[in-house]
Design brief:
mainly beta; Thrombin, subunit H; 7-stranded antiparallel beta sheet; 2 helices
Length: about 110
């Protein structure tokens, strides 16, 4: 197999995931079917929110509930999310992803 032909056919997707809650966009480090981990710790009470996932500029959004809110006490703390069936189906076809942008945190 020719290395040059592999280079021309390879692709690394640009994946960005954010939690939008009460006017703030928080970067998500990991996303699972029933949890998320924020890239930067933040505190937020239980609320409805949106998860925005952009893959190579194509964005999808899902409405979710943060039944326990978010706690900044631990940087790698999993926050529970309750999502629609549509969100769970879309997520099951993807692995966790990382991003690098966001807004104010604690």
């Amino acid at each position: 197999m020719n290395v040059d032909s592999l280079k021309s056919h390879s692709h690394s997707a640009d994946v960005r995931i954010h939690l939008h809650v009460n006017g703030c966009s928080l970067p998500v480090a990991q996303l699972g079917p029933d949890f998320l981990i924020l890239r930067t710790p933040a505190d937020h009470p239980p609320a409805d929110a949106d998860i925005a996932m952009s893959i190579d500029g194509n964005e999808k959004r899902w409405r979710v509930r943060l039944p326990d809110g978010i706690a900044a006490a631990s940087p790698r703390r999993k926050s529970r999310v309750r999502a629609s069936a549509h969100f769970l189906a879309a997520l099951s076809s993807r692995q966790t992803a990382s991003i690098s942008r966001g807004c104010r945190s604690t």
